[in-house]
Design brief:
2 domains; elongated; Rossmann fold; 20 strands; 26% helix; alpha+beta; 336 residues; OB fold (Dihydrolipoamide Acetyltransferase, E2P); six-stranded mixed beta sheet; single chain; five-stranded antiparallel beta sheet
Length: 336
């Protein structure tokens, strides 16, 4: 079990955050640039001096436990062979079987044929597999992964992510992953910890965090509209003064979530009985294949997702005047 509580100041960053990770659990640390994710990870590894730090692994200070690390830039030793790179940590621990154990790990990640090669001969994906083998070869109780796939191209990233998920599943220590990629987090992690401005603002299982975002950053990650207000029966009074009708809104401070696909766009006031209708102005139209995300400004800014044919039929373009409607049943509400 990893338990970390770290406070430090570094430039404009004021980091004061705590988290834990159980054996066999993958915890992903996400947040916007400058939130303190990598600094938190490096403080755990002892690479950054903290003003106050309580870090324990299985109840023992981390400096007395083996920690494996994999960074965005794989940081292999260029003058050593691939085999010697993997064996480096084992030799530092005076393992007499360092080369044998290192070779076993290279075979495990499918790179046994590259044992005598230098890192310069490897592709980005191969180098990252070597870095993973080097980290796991020492049998660490904690594995730290700092944006391990960020430097890879899209095709290689998918392949290495699949392999990484396989190897993480066979590792029984705690695992802490720093990433900015929600797909990577969802594919690899059991639990998410969201860091913003040096503080933990939300944490929980992946499905819970993605279904119930509590900050704009998380809402943007999962691609939904997040609003906050006060519910009274079936009406949510929003912070900007507008109102939303929702089913079973309850009472008290709440978040309201609307999926972009639930937002309908009209060029004239819609007929029928939609409970939530308001005017707006198109700010931008981003085409995504056969669908488009349309950002609409006005008294209640919102993002809609419509088909490419709807963009053409409605002549949606910047500064176009439109009407927006959302059914009450499509507004998700939960306590703030």
């Amino acid at each position: 079990m990893l338990k970390a509580d770290i406070h430090l100041r570094l430039g404009t960053l004021d980091l004061d955050a705590a988290l834990d990770a159980a054996p066999g659990e993958v915890v992903a640390l996400l947040g916007p640039n400058g939130a303190g994710k990598t600094t938190f990870l490096r403080a755990i590894a002892g690479l950054v001096r903290a003003g106050r730090a309580k870090v324990a692994l299985d109840g023992v200070a981390t400096e007395r436990r083996p920690i494996g690390s994999v960074f965005q830039q794989h940081l292999l030793f260029p003058h050593l062979s691939v085999l010697e790179n993997v064996a480096f940590g084992l030799r530092a621990r005076q393992r007499p079987d360092a080369r044998v154990a290192a070779m076993a790990w290279l075979e495990r990640v499918g790179l046994g044929a590259y044992a005598n090669a230098r890192p310069a001969a490897l592709s980005g994906g191969e180098a990252q597999r070597v870095a993973l083998a080097r980290a796991l070869a020492i049998d660490p109780r904690l594995l730290l992964l700092d944006e391990p796939l960020a430097a890879l191209d899209a095709t290689t990233r998918v392949e290495v992510r699949r392999e990484l998920r396989h190897h993480l599943a066979s590792f029984d220590g705690a695992r802490l992953l720093v990433t900015h990629d929600p797909l990577e987090a969802a594919a690899l992690a059991d639990r998410l910890v969201i860091l913003e401005g040096g503080r933990v603002v939300q944490s929980g299982p992946v499905d819970e965090v993605t279904r119930h975002p509590r900050t704009r950053f998380v809402a943007d990650l999962v691609g939904v509209n997040l609003l906050r207000g006060r519910a009274d029966g079936g009406v949510v009074a929003l912070e900007g003064g507008q109102q939303l009708t929702a089913l079973d809104a309850g009472n008290g401070d709440v978040f309201a979530v609307i999926h972009p696909r639930s937002v309908a766009i009209h060029r004239t006031h819609p007929e029928g009985t939609p409970r939530n209708v308001w005017p707006g102005t198109v700010r931008s139209v981003d085409m995504l294949g056969e669908r488009a995300r349309v950002a609409i400004g006005g008294s209640l800014p919102i993002v809609a997702e419509v088909t490419a044919s709807a963009v053409r039929d409605l002549d949606l373009r910047e500064r176009a005047e439109v009407w927006v409607s959302v059914k009450a049943a499509e507004v998700g509400v939960y306590p703030a």
